[in-house]
Write a structure and sequence with these properties.
Blueprint (H helix, E strand, L loop, with lengths): L2 H13 L2 H15 L6 H25 L4 H16 L1
Helix pairs in contact: 1-2, 1-3, 2-3, 3-4
Length: about 80
């Protein structure tokens, strides 16, 4: 996951609507199930989907009143903590 990309998607959600991201996630998940998708493509899709899901989580925190910077940093701390 990349924080600048997550922040960029959060900005998109705030400017537009989270439904766009939800529908994009659904499309990419459906695409990943196609028979001809190669392993390398699945890796890229997985990274993109991780960033989109991360942005949705951060946006949810912001909607509940958490300041943007704090929501982003808190999310990344949780991610790093879950990996380690």
């Amino acid at each position: 996951m990349k924080l600048p990309i997550i922040k960029h998607v959060v900005d998109f959600i705030e400017t537009n609507d989270e439904d766009w991201v939800v529908e994009t996630i659904e499309l990419l998940e459906h695409y990943s199930e196609a028979k001809g998708v190669k392993d390398e493509e699945l890796d890229v899709l997985g990274e993109v989907l991780s960033n989109l899901y991360g942005a949705m989580e951060v946006h949810k925190e912001i909607k509940s009143g958490t300041p943007s910077k704090e929501a982003l940093n808190g999310f990344m701390k949780r991610v790093v903590g879950s990996i380690g």
